[in-house]
Write a structure and sequence with these properties.
about 180 residues, mainly beta, 6-stranded antiparallel β-sheet, about 35% strand, globular
């Protein structure tokens, strides 16, 4: 039996993926005490689970999720490949820019339209997959993320919903050697 297992492991290539980092999904016992800028938690429009973030922008303020709520304050996402999340609005809009910040730095602002499934922002939850490198600047490599901000400046009467923010490692790890350490 061990010889067959050994043969299979030698013949079949083993491919794995690295772990991802859940930055924010609202599913925490202390969700009602979390801090947000120009937004609230919402239990009626979650993509998955019970809660999502509802941004309520105005002319002067950008909604933001503070990552201390789920113990991901100052997370280093510089070695991940993508920032993935689900996004929808109460009406069709032409753009929404996302940025990350960690004192005293801010990332590039990136329009999510280029990275959202279907290429449009409307009332349907759609997956957004933003390359981490597009957010990095010379001074800020997203090595300490405190806030995730969404900018829809100039669009009136808007609510938008964000859920399941994950830093994703898309690189495959190929395992080409192994050893039996016990019998």
């Amino acid at each position: 039996m061990k010889i067959r297992l050994l043969f299979l492991l030698l013949v079949i290539p083993i491919v794995t993926f690295s772990q991802n980092l859940m930055l924010w999904n609202g599913e925490t016992a202390t969700i009602r005490t979390c801090e947000f800028d120009t937004g609230i938690v919402d239990s009626l429009n979650a993509n998955s689970g019970k809660w999502c973030f509802m941004g309520q922008p105005d002319k002067w303020h950008l909604p933001a999720i503070k990552l201390s709520c789920q113990n991901t304050w100052r997370s280093d996402i510089s070695n991940f490949d993508e920032l993935q999340f689900y996004f929808k609005t109460n009406k069709t809009i032409p753009y929404c820019r996302i940025s990350l910040s960690g004192w005293p730095y801010s990332s590039n602002q990136v329009d999510i339209v280029k990275y959202i499934t279907g290429g449009k922002i409307d009332s349907t939850y759609r997956l957004v997959r933003i390359p981490i490198d597009s957010l990095k600047t010379f001074q800020y490599l997203v090595q300490s993320v405190e806030f995730i901000r969404f900018d829809t400046s100039g669009i009136a009467n808007l609510n938008y919903y964000v859920d399941d923010l994950i830093a994703v490692d898309t690189k495959q790890l190929n395992v080409d050697t192994f050893a039996i350490i016990s019998n």
